């Protein structure tokens, strides 16, 4: 009996040992595959990230790698977003540099073209004088003066006096065309004539008054250009006795007028600008308000000659 019990105990012991070893083996195998899977889930995005970093370092611009939702994958996605953002910023910077280069080329071209233009106009003027066509000669002279004042040697600011002269030359040309239909009245305080203002902010409103106010009107019409010092500001008004404008919103949203308003606010600040008043049949008044002194700009300039 004793021997039988020992034999059964031995069999049971071997069975338990085999079961333990088998379970241990299964656990080891499962642990191996599980560890491999976990390792793969970590190493795969790491290898992807390594590849992306290498490709970017080699100058690759199109990143096609897709990352999973793991923590490493999240780092990869953020890196990809950063690369794409930097690429977009680089492209914008390149576009800005190209635009700057184009602007430089245009500026160089603009410095050449006026000389050709002036020489051509002078030649036409001389031919008109030789042939005794005084009216054509006068028109060419007025046009040449207007161009010279408009270009202003590429300067951003112009004296009030030169700005008024530009208007006078412009109206002289228009009166030759329209047979003296328009009268121009200048009422600007002499003491502000030497003040500087940004170029080309008065004449567009004179042109607008002529084409939209006076041209549709029967008979003659007048334009008044006034300018005065008001506290620390300069106030200019362009007034006409034309047909008036019913819808001022159309006037304010026109490209030329909008351009002037934007340049005034860009150069002087949002508190400055242009206002409009108009009545049908009675005419239109445009009021331009700018500061008399601008930081970083000399107040007085010499007035250019003819």
UniProtKB/TrEMBL annotation:
Domain Histidine kinase/HSP90-like ATPase: 193-294
Reactions the enzyme catalyzes: ATP + protein L-histidine = ADP + protein N-phospho-L-histidine
Keyword flag Transmembrane helix: yes
TM segment ranges: 15-35
EC number(s) recorded for this UniProt protein: 2.7.13.3
InterPro entries: Bact_2-comp_sensor_kinase, HATPase_C_sf, HATPase_dom, Sig_transdc_His_kin-like_C, Sig_transdc_His_kin_internal
Leading EC class: transferase
Keywords: Kinase, Membrane, Transferase, Transmembrane, Transmembrane helix, Two-component regulatory system
Gene3D superfamilies xrefs: 6.10.340.10, Histidine kinase-like ATPase, C-terminal domain (3.30.565.10)
Any GO molecular function: phosphorelay sensor kinase activity
KW Membrane (keyword) present: yes
Gene Ontology, cellular component aspect: membrane
Origin: domain of life: Bacteria
Protein name: histidine kinase
Organism whose genome encodes this protein: Mediterraneibacter gnavus (Ruminococcus gnavus)
Lineage of origin: Bacteria, Bacillati, Bacillota, Clostridia, Lachnospirales
